[in-house]
Each structure stands twice: as structure tokens, then as C-alpha cells.
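Researcher: First entry.
Model:
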Amino acid sequence: MSLKADDVTKQPRSSRWIALAILMLPVLLVTVDNTVVGFALPKIAEALQPSASQQLWMIDAYSLVLAGLLISMGSLGDRKGHRKLLLIGSLGFCVVSAMTAYTDSAAQLITGRACMGIFGAMLMPSTLALIRSLFEDREERRFAVAIWATTLTVGSALGPLIGGVLLEFFSWGSIFLLAVPVLVPLLVLGPLLLPESEPDGSGPMDVISTMQSMVALGALVYSIKHIASVGPDVSALVAFSVALVFGWVFVRRQLRLPTPLMDLSLFRNKMFSGSVTINLMSLAFLISFVFFSTQFLQIALRMSPLSASLALIPGQVMAIVVGLVIVPVAQRVSVIVLIPILLAFTAAAFLLVAGIGSSLTILVMAFALLNIGVGAIATVSNDVILSAVPSTKAGAASAISETAYEVGVVLGTTVLGGVVTATYRSTLQLPDFLTPLQTHLASETLAGAHSISATLTGSQGDEVMYNATRAFEGGISLMAWVTFSLALLAIFIARRTLKVPKAAPV
């Protein structure tokens, strides 16, 4: 026997919180998956020998597909029921993850990641929408959303730790097998504990809008990656033009449709649009940090995966603590004051790296500062997003929120990670004793330089790694300055948009 939405109020209070715990399993998995692959990248690069572009696609194929489908899946959940979609997505994610664990080429891994993104898109909108169904009381729901938002940040923060433990004792494929033990409890207990949301029957799925959004986002990401890997050329210009055209067509279509795929009217609410923007930017900051720091710790500083992951534990602890402690603070301090203060912590993290360098001590301190800001921002902004819309728009609002989250992940690796990659390629000076093939491989990625140095004699290998590390550090420094500037911009956006109406609760 399954629960209906009307039965929620009859459930014991403890049952609702157990149901929430079950809901957090897919949230944790999907967000862990965003950073654990980045942490495993050196091991994957050693095994599969991907190009620089393929390395970025290994991370972004998942988030790109996820971001492109989240709005559609949120709408589908509103129509057909969020619990049903959640269970289908969990089963598919388990199967595809297990298959991806045994791929033997970069192309296969990228394809597997893209397929995981399809099923991952079924999970995320359903979790936040079901929280709205489970908790009708405002204060209970605020705390439940805080747990959900904290899980988002904690999942991203725990990715390196989980990856470090798995990679220390198992092959890189183990990071994908993680999905099976995490999602099986949801598949077993979900039908018993989770209520089914009421379908609204608001018409068929808009496949055309879905394709337009995916083409626009995919073309934009491709153009940025191409510029980072090869440089600006005709291909990058064409891809960027395609992104602009399809993005414009998508927006015009949404404004004309009686039941749009993305309800753009929600963005007329400054609190909603400002919170979504801050959410996107803060996640981009976090993912970009994980992207460069995990490579630097494992390759440049030659730390084992486990040692590198343990070095980031202070930041992971801060993400958990701050994400929960911020709830009572948010009840007393206006968001227009609170979020700029939190963004100041993220700005300080990158200013530390830009101004002093990327030593182990600095990276540990910066990651802790970053997680103080991002961990709390996720909690506060998602509560604002969910509270700013009527209950009938919960699925659409949560889908937009999570789309911003995944777009932030994509932009973190594509734009900010691309700054590191482009700087590395343009400033790297390699010795003349390398063959053309060795020069090409070493100039692609830091992992490539490490692989080439391992085939050389001691002094020659040390010279290659010294030059590669310096070029990579130069990319980190430039990216840190760029991100610091973006954090200041985010503070300005927060101050202009997060003004709570006098009649609304803070």
C-alpha cells in the first residue's frame, strides 16, 4: 500500500523525518557524483589517456545532460507524480552507473556519464517537490529544506573524501559502483514511506523546448571548452552563435506557450531570480576549486588519493556544521545581510589563493573558508526559492533551482576550469629533448605531463614536472583572481535583489 498526498498529515512525525532521510540518499549521490569524478581524474587519465577536452567532458557530460533535462523532468513529475519518477530514475541510475564502472575508453566513459545525467535529472526535482508534500508546517519545511540544501553541499564536499578512500583500495571504477548500495534502500523503502504527489494533468511534455534548451546549453559549453583547449577559432564562434540562437528561440517559445516548460514568470520575483543566480555562482566557485585542487594535490604535490582527501576534511566539516547552524541564524537575520556576508567568505577563499599561492596549507584554509560560504548559501537560498512560489509551482521552482545548481557545476569546470587549462597550455615551456608526441601529451594536461615525466630519466622527468607545475600554478592564480572578482559581483547582485517585502517573513 502506498501513500497519497492527503495521507501525509496522518503520518506520525517520526515517519516524515525517516522519509526525509530516504529522500536524501539520491541527493547525496547525485552531488557526490559531481566532484568524485573530478577527484578521480588523475587515476582515470592514467588508465584511459584522455585528451584535455575529453577530461573536461568526463566531468561535464553528466552535469550538462542533467541541467538540460531538469526542467523537463520537474514538469514531468508535476504531471505524472514525483515519487514514480524518483523510483524510475533511481533504478536507471543504478544500472547505468554499474555499466560505466567497467568502460575501457574515454569515449565510453563520457557516454556513460551522459546517460547517468538522464536518470539523475529524474531524481533531483522530485526530492525537493516531495519535501513540499511531506512538510506542510512552515518551520518544519524550512528545517527540511535546510537538510536538503546542506546535503547538496555536503555531497559535493564529500566527493573528494569518498573518492580518496575508494581509490586508495580499489580501481577508479569503484566510484561508479557506489550508486548501487546508496540507492537500493530508496528503491525498497520509497514506495512505503514517500507520498505520491498529485498529478496536475496540465498537458503533454514539450519535447521541442527540451531539445532547444539542450542544444543551447551544449553549444555554449562546447564553445568554451574549445577555446580553452584549442583557442578561439571559427568552430568556437559557430558553436557560440548556435547557443545564442537556440537560447533566444527557447525563451521566445516559453513566453508564448500557455503551459511553458520553464515558467519564466517566476523570474519576475527578484527574491527568486536573485537566489537562483547566487546558487549558480556559489556552486561554480566550489566545483572550480575541487577541479584544480584535487589535481594539484595528487599530481603536483604527489599525495596519495587518500592523503589528498584527508587534507580537505576541515572544509567538509565546515560545510556540514554551517549548513545546519545557519537555520536559526536565517530566522533572525535578513537575507540581504546574511548572503553577502556568506559570499564574503567565498571571496576571501580565492583571494587567499590568488594573493599567497597554492601550497597545501593555503588550499586547506581556502577550502574551509569556501565551504563556510557555499554550505550556508545553499541552505538559505533554496529556502527562499521554495518559499517564493505557490505550492502548485513547487516542481517547476525546484527544477529551476537544481538546473542552476548543475549549470553552476558545468560553468565551474568549463569557464573557471577552462581558465586553468588555457593558461597551462599557453604558458607551459617544455624542454627540447621531448619528442613531438611527448610534447603534445604533456601540453594537454598536468596528468599528461606527469605520465611523460614517468618515462624519462630522473633529472629530465623532474624538469618536465617542474615546468608543468609552474604553468598549472599560474593557471590557478589567474582563475583565483577571476573567481574573486565574480564573488564580489555576486555580493552586488545579492544586495540589489534580495530585498524582502515588508509583509513577507524573513
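Researcher: Second entry.
Model:
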Amino acid sequence: MTLAIFDLDNTLLAGDSDHAWGEFVVDAGLVDADSHRRQNDQFYQDYLNGELDVMRYQRFALNPLVGRDKDILDAWHKAFMNTRVKPMLQDKASALLDDHRKRGHTLMIITATNRFVTGPIAEILGIRHLIATEPAMEDGQYTGDVAGTPSFQGGKVIRLREWLRENNENLDGAWFYSDSHNDLPLLELVDNPVAVDPDARLEAFAREQGWPVISLRD
């Protein structure tokens, strides 16, 4: 297969679902508003700066899920999808996905955002293969910890290589689309790296390398 791999936040989506989830739980009154919003904003800035402590952030992001029953979490996520995610969907992103489908490529999302947030987003985009940061679970409930390697920065390469081994596949002719300099380890690995609405650091590097730089913003 030829893989067409996509980052999610600020690439396929016109916004960051991870940060948006933090805003959602604040606005829904599920956490202490001032403290959670302040930490959420600081973690997002750390991410933009390439300075994110990913394990510390993931424990923060997963904490509102701890000990909650599935029906409650499902209701929260349905409201989150309707109010936060659907406005981020982009027609040009859908067209790009369709183009790769028509070319017979296998679509995959690889994202640092956890699977609780991103699983339903991948479904609505029609993408079956998702590599996301995996929340740890015990007795059917989230523990607040991370299982395995977070798919962030070089962790995306580790997790993708695991998937390739498990599925007896390779990266021949693979594509990867991303907006962030945090994804340079994977962008440099594939045959067809594409910068999508990139941050300043990625745009400068992409232009130096002669990579395509595109926009999916409507």
C-alpha cells in the first residue's frame, strides 16, 4: 500500500482539537475554570514553541476523564463534536482526502492528541487507520495515565514504525501532511512531505528543502 498520512490539528482541522477539548470542559463547568484554562493555554503555547512536556500535558488533558462512566463521556464527546469540531472541518481537506482515495492510497491520521478526543474525528473523516496517544484504562475507565509511547515529535516515528511492522508494510512512496515543526522527524522520513498552513519554523524549513507548501483553509 501507499500511505497518505495526515496530522490532524491545524492540518485537516482548522484548529486544534486538543486545545478545544480543554476549552470545552471549562465552558461545560467540568473543571475549575480559571486554573484549567490557564494551564491549557500555557501547554498550547509550549507546544507551539516546541517545548511541550508531553507526559505532563497528557495527564492534564486526561484528568477530566478519570473515573467517568462511558455513557457520560460519550455524551460529552457528542456535544464536543457538535460545538467545537464540526466548525473546524474544511472542504479543501475533504477534497484532499478524496483525491488520495481515488489514487488508491491508504489514509492514516497520526496525531499527538489522545484517542478519546480523536477517535470520533477520524470516523467522521472516514479514516480507518488512526495512530494517537493512547490513554491507559483499567476496569473500563480511564486512569489518567498514558499507555505506551505518546505519538508526539519523534514518538510519531516510533509509533508508525510499530504499525508498519505489525502490518507488514513500508513507507515506499508515502505522503505526510503537517502544519507543525514538531512533526519534522516524520516529515523528513517520508518520500512526499507536505507543509500545510505551516508555522513559521516549518515553513522556512520546507521552503529550504523545496517541499510543497499548501493551504487547506477555506
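Model: Note on the second entry: Residues 33-49 form the longest helix (17 residues).
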